[in-house]
Amino acid sequence: MTAKAKTTNTKGKTGKAVNKETQAGVQTPDNVLYDHSLISDYDIYLFKEGKHFTLYEKMGAHVTKHKGSKGVFFAVWAPNAREVSVIGDFNNWKPGEYPLQVRNDETGIWQGFIPGLKKGDLYKYHIVSNFNNYTVEKTDPIARYNEVPPNTSSVVWDWEYTWNDKDWMQTRKEKNNLDAPMSVYELHLESWRRVPEEDNRYLTYQELAHSVAEYVSDMGYTHIELLPVMEHPFSGSWGYQVLGFFAPTSRFGTPQDFMYFVDTMHRHNIGVILDWVPSHFPGDLHGLHYFDGTNLYEHQDPKQGYHPDWSSYIFNYGRAEVKDFLISSAHVWLDKYHIDGLRVDAVASMLYLDYSRKDGEWIPNEHGGRENLHAIRFMREMNESVYERFPDIQTIAEESTAWPMVTRPVYTGGLGFGMKWNMGWMHDTLNYFAKDPVYRSYHHNQITFSIWYAFNENFMLSLSHDEVVHGKGSLINKMPGDPWQKFANLRALFGYMFTHPGKKLMFMGMEIGQWAEWNHERSIDWHLLDHDLHAGLKAWIRDMNACYKNFPALYELDFLTDGFKWLDANDSKNSILSFARYSKEHKDRIFVVCNFTPAPQYNYRVGVPEQGNWKEVLNSDAHLYGGSGQGNMGAAEATPVPYHEENYSINITLPPLSMVMFRKE
Question: 170: burial class by Cβ within 10 Å (0-12, 13-18, 19+)?
């Protein structure tokens, strides 16, 4: 720690005697004031305990007033620094001219108020370490705004914005409930739509706001999920190498522009989920790595602190101040940006100390196990804190293993997430659909197995960006057969997905059958919608979303066994599945039949619970969607022939490579 400050009298520029403080024998100038602080003793207590989850209100750069002077209060955590000063465009980036003072409470927080600075000023922290005189210029870890990459300075900014989403915020609990419909459109802002006439530029937050809102509303999705918008130095990381955990990327505009984007979504009745990455961070010199000349945010030992898959650094979740930092990051998006949910990236890599490591490349926990006990505590505390403060949001785990109780409450031993991506369903389903239909009968268990565990967690069925990158090809190109069969297969896959228990997520471009693998540097191939098969697929998704939202049987009991019943899971010979979905108290009932072969089936009998007319609500083989037009003339009449443990049944035509859905009129 630095030596305690003492007071001396010196001559100021006016010739009058003024009080100045000295630190470690170095006099501090008149242009930094140290008797002003936004940080209270209670803040310090919470910070040391790892319980301060609103650091963004206290640290970073804050435009404020002191003794009648407007200026900026700075606070940064750098416990192993010998000197910290603020540099910027206001002083030609000269170190030492605006030194901060370390607090005398052993927190390692450096602070100071600089009169005359204002919103829009560029700044960094110039840090001289106690170790080996290491000197570095760092971006503010809690900056609200940063320069457009590749520039790396932080920007003094505020969060002033007039929100117009009161109606959404007052009612969003019912939109985010586990018994509500949730169909999520995942998109990457930089590549959703570009302007080829203007050197292929990407759109701004303001431009995207209206384009995305209109498109998503028309398609009937309930939510969007954005690949990370937190500031990141390299576009090729798609946002997953985050350095600005409190700042939306400036590539598309200001923080207020991003607020406008969220506001616009809400005014169109669309929820916004953000991808959040507390699992690792890149080693760029201006970032968190080796922040004060020590491994402050990350573990010192690379067996704990370095991620071999992503060449990045792993947070030290056992350190109270790091936990404060990360959980405060989660809170800021929900608080200042009205975000409706956080999808937490790479949870498996956080849970396991040996994740992607060979023997001898990892350090066991205190009990000799492979579980990261500190990360587990961090996730539990993060979930508890955000649900306590924002009870109408959701947290969603991307967790690819069989870790138990990911979506169960912390008080029962769970991790406390609201939902979890169903990676098992995704792998099995894509593997099954990639097979030529002639072989599917031999792999029938692949498409039925997911129901065995469908209710162990609160699952979201995800067909995400990860499935259409790194040489995996597009979703449509995973389907076998000629072009017509590819589209028929894909319509059947989506029909199966939308009727299977669990919330839904699909990545942009999948809904139009984009042929090309996703490329973050180019737009979706919107011109494909000039072709009937592509336009038909889009119409199918639009109508699936409409049915999904309108029929409670398809969403109310997603996570309870009462909402699902097999009619026949064993017709492997014909590669046909039939099942029923139910709403609460079985007030709404949907009967679904899927044919995963190109051979149509005639007089195929399906059990139903009562006599009368059963309307064919949806048929993926309709001409409207690019199908062959086979079906049941809009309805099927039930007769008193018991079948599938039901008292009545319907005889139906089952089109090739299709999903048909029936509902009692």
Answer: exposed
pLDDT in tens, 501-515: 999 999 999 999 999
For 594, the token pair is: 């899927």
Torsion, Cα of 254, 328, 285, 255 (10° steps): 0
Q: What is the pLDDT of residues 311-351, one digit of tens each?
A: 999 999 999 999 999 999 999 999 999 999 999 999 999 99
Helix (H), strand (E) at residue 314: none
Contact (CB, 8 A) for 636 and 650: yes
Confidence of residue 395 (pLDDT cuts 50, 70, 90): very high
- H-state helical runs in 177-204: 189-192
pLDDT at 24: 37
What span, in angstroms and rounded, lies between the C-alpha atoms of 631 and 102? 75
Half-sphere exposure of 587 (CA within 13 A, CB side): 7
Structure tokens at 68: 């009648």
Number of other residues whose CB lies within 10 A of the CB of residue 376: 16
Contact 392, 339 (CB under 8 A): no
Q: How far apart are CA 543 and CA 626, in angstroms?
A: 14
Using CA atoms, how far apart are residues 628 and 166, in angstroms rounded to an integer?
Answer: 47
pTM of the entire predicted model? 0.94
From the list 389, 285, 420, the residue with the least C-alpha distance to 327 is 389
Sheet architecture: strand order including 17-23: 6-11, 17-23, 26-27
Does residue 119 sit in helix, strand or coil? coil
> What mean pLDDT is predicted for residues 461-467?
97
Judge contact between 245 and 274, C-beta under 8 A: no
Domains of the chain with CATH codes: 6-155 (2.60.40.10), 180-554 (3.20.20.80), 561-664 (2.60.40.1180)
- Which are the catalytic amino acids? 345, 398
pLDDT digits (tens, 9 = 90+) for 558-583: 999 999 999 999 999 999 999 999 99
Mean pLDDT across the chain, nearest whole number? 94
Nearest to 332 by CA among 382, 279, 289, 287: 382
DSSP character string of 561-611:
GGGEEEEEEEETTTTEEEEEEE-GGG-SEEEEEEE-SSS-EEEEEEEESSS
Task: Give pLDDT tens digits for 597-648.
Answer: 999 999 999 999 999 999 999 999 999 999 999 999 999 999 999 999 999 9
* Residue 263 to residue 88: CA distance in whole angstroms: 32
The span from the CA of 67 to the CA of 24, in Å, is: 27
Q: What Rg, from alpha-carbon coordinates, does the chain have?
A: 28
